[in-house]
Design goal:
By secondary structure, the protein is an all-alpha fold. The protein is 73% helix and 0% strand.
């Protein structure tokens, strides 16, 4: 704020504090939006808005436009946190969502350490100006749009056919008696349970 927009130290501190509210709002707004437009569409929107905002940010020479662009970036930044858990559940199942989301956060944390160091190197290597760092970040964000564009849901696992197992109880017993309704109900329930077991043998081998 001070170097680019010429804000005072007090104004810059107040602005940074307010940006935290946009961070929190983004988690709610983008999470709700992803439920309507889809997870990948939400990520495309966040990356596009962030990329464009970063490209314009170095040219914002006053406090108001600089704050608006920064708020937009923070809304999208928070949106990533709000959308990633649901994305992990949609693509890997609720059973694996916790572990997948943890891996996402680890990658996010690594980027949080490496990213500022790279930005600082670009800043110092270009006469202590923010033009090049912000431009590079913006271009990387726009290039990253390719990732949600090519991402697809995993193919669903085929369901096992339990019909042969269900028909077994209806066959005539060796004694010539037909299974009773209660026996049929119990056998059908057992067949369905076995069909959904991960280690269940193929139906033709039962």
């Amino acid at each position: 704020f001070q170097a680019v927009a010429g804000a005072t130290a007090t104004a810059a501190a107040a602005a940074v504090g307010l940006l935290g509210l946009f961070n929190g709002a983004g988690r709610i707004v983008w999470a709700a939006a992803s439920d309507r437009i889809g997870r990948m569409s939400a990520f495309i929107g966040m990356l596009a808005l962030q990329g464009l905002a970063f490209l314009v940010l170095p040219h914002a020479s006053s406090v108001a436009p600089f704050f608006i662009l920064s708020a937009l970036i923070y809304v999208c930044y928070g949106g990533g946190f709000g959308t990633m858990p649901a994305t992990a559940a949609d693509y890997f199942g609720t059973k694996n969502a916790g572990a997948i989301y943890g891996a996402m956060i680890v990658a996010w944390s690594v980027a949080g350490v490496v990213g500022p160091k790279l930005a600082a190197a670009l800043y110092e290597g270009n006469g202590n100006t923010y033009g090049v760092p912000f431009t590079v970040i913006g271009l990387v964000a726009l290039a990253a749009i390719a990732l949600p564009l090519i991402t697809r849901l995993p193919a669903p696992r085929p369901r096992k056919d339990v019909t042969p197992s269900i028909l077994v109880p209806l066959q005539v017993r060796p004694t010539g008696e037909v299974a009773t309704g209660e026996a049929v109900e119990q056998a059908v329930g057992q067949a369905v349970k076995e069909a959904h077991r991960e280690d269940a043998p193929p139906v033709g081998l039962r």
